[in-house]
Structures are given as structure tokens and as C-alpha cells.
Amino acid sequence: MALPDIPIPNPAAVQEVGADGWTLLVNPDTTGAMAVNQTGALVWKLVDGRRTADEIIAAVRSRFPDAPDNVAEDVRALLTKLADEGFVGREIPLKRGTS
What we know:
Blueprint: E1 8-9, E2 14-17, E3 23-27, E4 32-36, H1 38-46, H2 53-63, H3 71-84, E5 88-89
Antiparallel strand pairs: 1-5, 2-3, 3-4
Helix pairs in contact: 1-2, 2-3
């Protein structure tokens, strides 16, 4: 799946924060799971259906000002992986006249 312009979180996804700073994301729709570090957990938190990928990247840069130059590529790669695994998607607009 291509990275949506505005990623929307899968409402069925479950998040479990571990004591070691890692977060486990579980997708009951696919029975898939993903472990993410603190930066990945922040990205997941920022996926709210209102922010664009660029806005999420800007927020990560703001939170981690010492992040490497390739942080934008890393965030996009994570968002793409989240989309591929069914943790995020995109809104599909309804056509007029349909219910």
C-alpha cells in the first residue's frame, strides 16, 4: 500500500508500552504485530487522521532536534510499513448519491 497523504490509524489496533521503552503494536484484523522504539511510538501517536506525513515528520524533528538528517526518510519508511501491515490507512471518500 502506498503511503496515504493523511494516514488514519486503524481503530482496531492495540498498543502495549513496555518497560524497556519499546511499544508493541498489534493488529487484530491481521493478527500482525510490530515492535517500535520511542521514535516509532511517537510516530504512531501522531497518526491521528489529521496530520499529513510532512507534519508528522516536522513534529518528530521538533521532539528530537538532534535526529539525523535522514529522519524524514525513516519516518516515511515507518509510515509505509505501518500502512503495509494494516495499522494505518486512508479515508475513502464516498461518491455523492451513495449511502
